[in-house]
Write a structure and sequence with these properties.
single chain, alpha+beta, six-stranded antiparallel β-sheet, three-stranded antiparallel β-sheet, 11 strands, 15% helix, TLDc domain-containing protein
């Protein structure tokens, strides 16, 4: 896989493969759909390259923290919600020094697992929101809010993923087809 985020640590690809195996099988292939630093930071670049694509993995880096999400349903820009039981968010390197973990979409929120928003990039419920111009806009968000489960080992769900409970600038984000 050609990913500047995942190439930081050999174990990132292994963990991500384990997380994906139950939903896509053991033969994941990786194909870059969109990388903000390569294709542009604007939400319209994300939508142009990723809308209509199934089985995508969004990978985000903020400082040393690496997290993201998976969805089996295609991205779109209809300003509505996507329903799926298979979506999950994950942490590969977090503020609490925990081992990589997965947070599955809660049963009561499967109808709001994914947000299709013309004016933003990938969104997983209200837990991960990648804003338009995410490298210069302070409107990206990554908290274990309410749409996805919070692992028992997480002490501070507001800061576990990106190191802050506030909106932040993203250092890199990419979407891979799995």
């Amino acid at each position: 896989m050609n990913s500047p985020i995942l190439s930081i640590s050999d174990c990132y690809v292994r963990y991500l493969g384990k997380f994906l195996e139950p939903v896509v099988g053991g033969n994941s292939h990786w194909l870059l759909c969109w990388r903000a630093s390569l294709h542009g930071w604007r939400a319209d670049q994300f939508h142009t390259r990723c809308d209509g694509k199934n089985d995508t993995v969004t990978i985000v880096r903020k400082d040393t923290y690496v997290f993201g999400g998976y969805t089996d349903i295609p991205w779109g820009n209809s300003n509505s919600w996507g329903e799926t039981t298979k979506a999950f968010i994950f942490s590969l390197n977090n503020t609490e020094g925990l081992a990589p973990f997965v947070s599955k979409v809660k049963k009561e929120y499967i109808g709001k697992a994914i947000r299709w928003n013309l004016y933003d990039g990938p969104q997983f419920g209200n837990d991960i929101i990648i804003a338009d111009d995410a490298n210069s806009s302070k409107y990206s968000k990554a908290v274990l809010d309410k749409y996805y489960s919070i692992p028992a080992s997480v002490k501070n769900s507001d800061k576990a993923l990106a190191g802050t409970s506030m909106f932040f600038n993203v250092d890199e984000v990419e979407v891979q087809l799995s």
